[in-house]
Fold each of these.
Amino acid sequence: MEYFLFTYPNCSKCEEIKNYLGGADLEGQECNLVLKESKLKIREFLGCLKRDDKGAIIIPTLVLQENGEVVTVLNNSKELEDWLRSKA
């Protein structure tokens, strides 16, 4: 299982999920959406990303993949905690 975590600097929710990921048995990378390559990477997942009521992508966004296929998309540490418990 691998992940891509899409974040912005100075985002408290982003820091919270990063801290939670530190204790999880998952491998992946953080993609800072200030960087062009991260903006290009998130485009690969536009069809499965969650959006708010105004249509904006919810950040942080954690995309979990297995064998190149999206398994789930999560947006906070509670969702991640619940998902990990369901897989235990």
Note: The chain has one domain: 2-74.
Amino acid sequence: MMGLILLAALAGGALLTWLRAAFPAARRLLDLLGAAAYMIFFAETARAVLKTLLDDTVFMTQVHEILLRPLFLICGGYLGPYGLSLLLAQLWARDK
């Protein structure tokens, strides 16, 4: 299963890198989606931590319920390949 996840992340990163290079307009859209995903990911995480602190369940496993939230999973799933595509684009630009 981990191999499949790694392969999907690499394929997604390669696809996003290709889109960034092939279509300049796509670069802006991908960056906008990346910023939105980052903000939603951050807000979901902050909400889970705040709820844990307010409920005084710091030493419980309540904070792990964030792993079941669809927005957290979708945004985190996009940020992995997006971050990889940014790194690949930087490496590609350095070689030129």
Note: Residues 24-54 form the longest helix (31 residues).
